[in-house]
Amino acid sequence: MIPGVLGRRRFSDLTEQEILALAISSEEDDARIYRSYAEMLRPDYPDSARMFDGMAAEEDAHRRSLIALHEARFGKVIPLVRREHVAGFYARRPVWLVENLGIERIREEAAAMESDAERFYLRAAQKTRDSATRKLLGDLAAAEAGHQDRAGELEQENLAGTARDSEAETSKRQFVLTWVQPGLAGLMDGSVSTLAPIFATAFATQDTWTTFLVGLAASVGAGISMGFTEAASDDGEISGRGSPFKRGLASGIMTTVGGLGHALPYLIPDFWTATMIAIAVVFVELWAIAWIQNRYMETPFFRAAFQVVLGGALVFAAGVLIGSG
Question: How large is the C-alpha radius of gyration of the chain?
Fold first, then answer.
């Protein structure tokens, strides 16, 4: 029996039976991961889901072959040996960690899984002196290489033609709805709405520290407000806009960043130096907003720039006039 995490065994100390048991449990785990990917992707990416169903079936076939080999050599009782029991053995990322990274990242993770397994078996085969063990590990390495070839065939079968383009478009749309739209709204609110209080305070007091504190308070307050508003406005179930937590996080953070951009220069003690830098930062922020609108929202660049710059200029002017009055 292999001890737990606190007493991991070295691979060189494993018996041939334990190595075979480790391969069996690894194949079983990988099949379970692929089925989890398939179920997770099925609603929005049915073609990729079928691909992962096929890869899980391949893992099951290899596991059955390994079990048959174990029964022939060592009997029906398979020792409990898992990845976490062996020092230096490759680990798998939790499904919940990968699922938030997009369809292409999931495909890359699947390719890495097969590649990791093949490299491990090849290295293990090189280190053993027993001919039977070397043959076993070499066969396992060849099986994992076959997995990679079969994965490529399955991808061609299930993602040919327009299927991949369609899934890429769906993935892009989901990214825009969940992250870009709330983040852009937050950046616009933080950059524009804080202009008046920050510059009004600046020109009214000409005190850089007071101006910074007002800007910090306005930015953080607006970020919290926008984040909670976005998260509470739509649970994403019907609209398909995604997790309210993610949308609220994107909106809140970008709102705060938008305000802090032209508040931070007032950490500089000299009033006019700080103000000139803050104005330059505002200019960069407004053009960044226009670029994002053009890049992700397909708004014509000059129209987006005109709308954002005009709005920002009006708010800025209002702040300066109020502060100078």
Answer: 28
